[in-house]
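ARCHIVE CARD
CATEGORY: sequence design from structure
SOURCE FIELD: tokenized fold
FIELD CONTENT:
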């Protein structure tokens, strides 16, 4: 069977978004989009027998569908622009199998003719999120329009591109395809793509990593590397990566973590020498002036984000050396007003959010998602602590966008935690039993891929850009002196006046649960609500740590221990719900729009055993709750808090 399609490259995110929202192309209507997460693995022999024959072999797995599709396609040849006409053979398999075990279909005979008894092995992989829509003429589907976001990886290199495909169905004609191509070329300024995704991926995999630094950049970094500060460490890391060292080794030699090396390498590819402040570059004698960054003046909002990035990093570096007593432009002072303290606090945490973004996109370190989510949570908590002293509309808009960011990050983070704890459970089982959760983990994997895709879509979308701009505007705003206007009632507004009251209020909110928990059979929901209250106490202590006494660190450790205990309890409760849902529905969570219960439960002894394990964990955590709770309720906690806030009085 021949495949007939047109392919176009989408050059910018705005066009990508707009194409998702249209409902017509010329005289053709577009049906509802079906979003699919696809993983393609291209197979060949060690000697590339299939490729030598002018074809490629693809194994395709859909996140929401069982089995795999095996496809053989002829390589493009002689096409005009983005028009592709290729021979295509395919077969569906319940699971990946060697060609000799495929059904007796033409694709099997063709592949065996090329490879004989040689083993097929992965040549390359790519992942894509596809928005597939039927193209209708007079109610009949004549083609399928696909908007594809394609992710490539080779070692530590990553690349993402967007592509549009229009493929004819059996009911479509060359005239239909020509009309659709004309509509796309005239209205959207798309670039015809002559290469297949396979060819683009193969070129990406085989090109090898490009050199990181130009000669002039190398000279500048060599000079900066002599500095004994964070800029010198950053320059040394870039030089080590350019010399071919791994990020782990580059970090060891430069005195920073591999994660930070990864972040600065990605930032350098975007900003080049602009990752260094102008004052640092201005002191350099090396490098051509033309090679220095000369961007157009940024908007005040974007400039505020950049300031927040630099200042936040400086605060991070200092805090690592002396926790709670860092000295930077973002360190709180007792005479700071609450709005001033709010902006310093937001600047610190937006930096933490931004520095983890690249790691979240790469998906190699689950802690990046955790750290970015914590940053959004702490910014929301800061707005709650400082909110009475800020503009209500501004706080509401920020809260809305931070809540959205936290929700998208939270789905992925919660699934990461679940998988990590499940792996600990599996590692403790006899080796013969470690596959007992495979069906359940397959459901987890399908949902996780979609959640990751949703997260990446969010990070590339307008809502995330809006969040960064709102934060930047907030940080850049100057404080009004309305509280000092003639005739105004005096109001506590400096940290030395507000912090004692704020910390005691948070402690009172936590200790109020003492009576609520002193009853038989306490509902588990109460422990979850206590966790939220304890988290607010901890964040408040951390926000004001710069102005509190030396006992603040001990207080924070105690509250964190309570929060961690309650967090483990909540994780176990949620896990039990997910395992129960699988035993009922066979899915990750209860399916949407299901009105009736299944006639029979899922038979999965391994899942049932894991459910019993997590239920026992809940009982253990409840029995040991006092070990985390008593240090908060004891008199010495109050005495340490009094000593900490006493330095302000």
């Amino acid at each position: 069977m021949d495949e007939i399609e047109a392919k176009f490259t989408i050059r910018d995110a705005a066009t990508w978004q707009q194409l998702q929202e249209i409902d017509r192309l010329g005289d053709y209507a577009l049906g509802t989009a079906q979003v699919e997460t696809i993983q393609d693995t291209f197979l060949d022999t060690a000697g590339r027998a299939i490729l030598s024959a002018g074809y490629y072999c693809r194994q395709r797995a859909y996140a929401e569908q069982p089995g795999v599709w095996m496809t053989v396609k002829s390589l493009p040849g002689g096409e005009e622009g983005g028009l592709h006409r290729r021979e295509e053979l395919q077969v569906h398999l319940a699971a990946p199998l060697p060609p000799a075990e495929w059904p007796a279909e033409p694709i099997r005979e063709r592949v065996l003719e090329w490879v004989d008894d040689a083993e097929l092995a992965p040549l390359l992989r790519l992942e894509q999120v596809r928005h597939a829509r039927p193209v209708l003429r007079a109610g009949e589907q004549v083609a399928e329009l696909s908007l594809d976001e394609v992710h490539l990886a080779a070692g530590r290199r990553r690349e993402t591109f967007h592509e549009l495909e229009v493929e004819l169905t059996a009911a479509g004609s060359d005239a239909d395809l020509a009309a659709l191509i004309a509509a796309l070329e005239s209205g959207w300024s798309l670039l015809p793509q002559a290469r297949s995704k396979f060819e683009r991926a193969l070129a990406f995999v085989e090109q090898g990593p490009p050199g990181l630094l130009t000669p002039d950049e190398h000279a500048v970094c060599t000079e900066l590397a002599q500095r004994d500060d964070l800029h010198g460490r950053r320059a040394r890391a870039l030089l080590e990566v350019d010399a071919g060292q791994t990020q782990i080794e580059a970090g060891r030699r430069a005195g920073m973590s591999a994660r930070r090396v990864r972040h600065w390498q990605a930032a350098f590819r975007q900003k080049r020498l602009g990752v260094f402040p102008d004052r640092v570059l201005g002191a350099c004698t090396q490098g051509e002036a033309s090679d220095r960054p000369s961007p157009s003046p940024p908007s005040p909002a974007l400039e505020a984000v950049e300031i927040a990035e630099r200042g936040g990093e400086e605060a991070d570096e200092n805090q690592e050396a002396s926790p709670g007593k860092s000295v930077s432009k973002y360190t709180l002072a007792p005479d700071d007003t609450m709005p001033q303290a709010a902006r310093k606090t937001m600047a610190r945490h937006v930096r933490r959010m931004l520095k983890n973004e690249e790691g979240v996109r790469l998906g190699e370190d689950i802690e990046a998602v955790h750290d970015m989510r914590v940053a959004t949570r702490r910014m929301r908590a800061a707005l709650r602590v400082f909110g009475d002293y800020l503009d209500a509309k501004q706080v509401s808009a920020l809260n809305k966008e931070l809540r959205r960011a936290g929700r998208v990050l939270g789905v992925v983070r919660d699934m990461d935690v679940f998988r990590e704890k499940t792996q600990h459970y599996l590692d403790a089982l006899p080796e013969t039993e470690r596959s007992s959760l495979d069906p359940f983990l397959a459901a987890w994997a399908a949902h996780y891929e979609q959640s990751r895709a949703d997260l990446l879509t969010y990070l590339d979308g307008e809502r995330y850009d809006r969040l960064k701009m709102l934060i930047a505007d907030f940080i850049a705003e100057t404080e009004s002196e309305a509280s000092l206007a003639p005739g105004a009632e005096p109001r506590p507004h400096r940290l030395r006046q507000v912090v004692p009251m704020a910390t005691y209020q948070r402690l009172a909110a936590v200790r109020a649960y003492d009576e609520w928990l002193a009853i038989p059979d306490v509902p588990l929901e109460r422990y979850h609500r206590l966790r939220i209250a304890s988290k607010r106490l901890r964040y408040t202590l951390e926000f004001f740590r710069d102005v509190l006494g030396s006992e603040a660190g001990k207080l924070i450790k105690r509250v964190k221990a309570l929060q961690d205990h309650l967090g483990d309890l909540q994780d176990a409760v949620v896990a039990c719900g997910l395992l129960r849902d699988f035993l009922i529905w066979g899915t990750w969570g209860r399916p949407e729009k299901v009105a009736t219960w299944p006639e029979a439960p899922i038979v999965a002894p391994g899942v049932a055993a894991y459910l019993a394990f997590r239920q026992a964990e809940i009982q253990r955590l409840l029995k040991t709750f006092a070990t985390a709770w008593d240090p908060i309720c004891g008199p010495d906690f109050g005495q340490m808090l009094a000593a900490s806030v006493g330095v302000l009085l």
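CARD ANNOTATION: DSSP finds 24 helices and eleven strands in the chain. Residues 392-427 form the longest helix (36 residues).
SHELF: design records, drawer C
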